[in-house]
Amino acid sequence: MDHIFDAQGIRCAILVGVAQRGISTRSARESLEELAHLASTATFEVIDRTLQNRDKPDPATYIGSGKIDELREMAKNRDIDAIIFDNDLSPSQMRNLETDIGVRILDRSLLILDIFALHARTRTAQIQVQMAHLRYLRPRIRQFNPHAERRAGLGSGETHTETTRRWIEQRGKSLYDSLKRVRRQMDTSRKGRNHSFNVVLVGYTNAGKSTLMRGLSGENVLVENQLFATLTNTTRSVDVHSHRPILLTDTVGFINRLPHHLFACFRATLQEAVQADLLLHVVDASHSQYKMQMITVNEVLTKLKIDDKPALTVYNKMDLADAERQKEIAKHCAKDPNALAISALDAADLDAVKNRICDFLSADAVTLKLQVPQSEGKLLSLLYAHSEILTRDYEGNDVHLRVRLNSNHAERLQLDRFLSESRTQADALA
């Protein structure tokens, strides 16, 4: 997909942040720094940035009249094409600002939406981006179509606004139907992974998930130093010399204040995390706001109702963190058995991650002694394919097996009636 708005000639931008009551100037400046990275990812050249402190936003223009005058002069004198706000603006605020300043106005949501559009490489991602765009556009029809109140046609009795709104509703329904078909296909694909141990990478955007995935799988995976470089799930196998295949899935990165319409549309993509046996929460240890980023990710996991999943926190990019940060995280990892400090570019660190995955895999396994009639050919085939056969003996018409397999898979196979002896998970690890 291309830009969701006409980007021809739009290259130079000014960034605007507003520190409201309860938000420190430092936090606002750090958020503005993230906005600069977003703007760069969307192919803008950031010419300048400015911050205003206000108790509350102006209902008509979000910022004050003095700041509007300042931005008008900056835009005129420095040949600015767009002004990007690190806040979400109402349709009327965007329209008033464009009238007062005379250049294109973007808010944080529209900028993120544009990045998603640029990086949507598959049909699934493109459908989701288009749905999000329609949700954003619907209350802003007049802003993006200044002639929206004209009559749509002679004798039609309706305005362009009404015609466009009806088209948006029809298009939205068509896209929703397409997305439902995609979800059914994804569900079918997941069913084929039931016997696998599914590990899902989650984390703040640009935390290094794709780099870690490439290192663990040994396969070529897109790695870019950009926000939202990964929009579509990528799944690869990981060899840890285990009896059970391990599948590793990369997911879309999270970000602070992700527009709600984008979250809703990408819920289908994030459903991979719902199916996970283990979450790898990848953290950029070198980022000054890594703790805030971790909170953002955990909030999204809570919204998905998967915050109780088994999880391993992987503090990545330790080689880029300063000495004090390295010491702080190392101290934390020494106390938390489910935390690990690494560099995804270090082979020894990658082996450490694989070993931790194996620990979770072992904890998820049970060892069973079974007496299965040879007439149960289908069940025996499933056991041979999806479990580790420790011993096998034949007695009369029965096969005596000692197997190790995933506890959930054992439950699905309904092995109780063939059970001659079982061992607990703790015994299996001994």
Strand content: 15-25%
Radius of gyration from the alpha-carbon trace, in angstroms = 27 Å
Give the CATH class of the largest domain. Alpha Beta
Order of helices and strands: EHEHEHEHHHHEHEEHHEHEHEHEHEEHEH
Question: What global shape is seen?
Answer: elongated
Count of the domains? 4
**Second rung of CATH, namely the architecture of the largest domain:** 3-Layer(aba) Sandwich
Average pLDDT, all residues: 83
The total of helices stands at 16
Helical proportion? 40-55%
Number of strands: 14
Structural class: alpha/beta
Which fold does the CATH topology of the largest domain refer to? Rossmann fold
What's the N-to-C terminus distance?
Answer: 53 Å
> What is the CATH superfamily classification of the largest domain?
P-loop containing nucleotide triphosphate hydrolases
Uncertain regions spanning at least 5 consecutive residues: 424-430
Largest sheet: 6 strands, mixed
How would you write the strand order of the largest sheet?
Answer: 6-7-5-8-9-10
